[in-house]
Design a protein that fits this description.
This protein has about 180 residues and is of the alpha+beta class. The protein is built from two helices and 14 strands. It folds into two domains: about 1-75, no CATH class; about 100-175, Lipopolysaccharide (LPS) transport protein A like domain (lipopolysaccharide transport protein A fold, Sandwich).
Amino acid sequence: MCLKKSFFVGFFCLYATLCAAVTPNIDVQADIFELDAKTQEIFASGNVRVTQKDILMTGKTAHYNQRNQKIMIQGPIQIEKGVMKLSCDSVTAYGKEEIIEAVGGVHFNYLRIKGESDFATFDRKSQVVVLTGNPKAWQNQDMLTGKSITIDLKREKVTTLGKARVVLSLDTLQQKN
């Protein structure tokens, strides 16, 4: 019994130390956790919820590597930051760089701007989302396409690069006049 308690206390202390060393701002919740003390990795599965500062990411499984402060979440994924919402198949978040990379079936929604693509990168510091891989963005009924679409959340500005195209809705143009 004493050995069991010692093991549990030791495991809990190691887990708490790893979590504290990770970044004080990352909170991971799940149905099941597995900690590999040797590799300093945490595996989570079932109803995974990862919160870092003001961003919430949910998915089925997560793998966190303390050494490179990288967390990979498998989906379906939902990411929320205030009124910004993004869904995709999988996501990798880099803690030090504050970058989130979304892959597969990306859908983006922020205020009046909606978008979709195969890939997206969110830079938390600059508050910029870049959609690549067949990107499309809409504001009301107006649509933009290009090789990449950059959405600046602070300035509510959308920029397209490479083979850019805009389709303007006549309804939207008439409403402005």
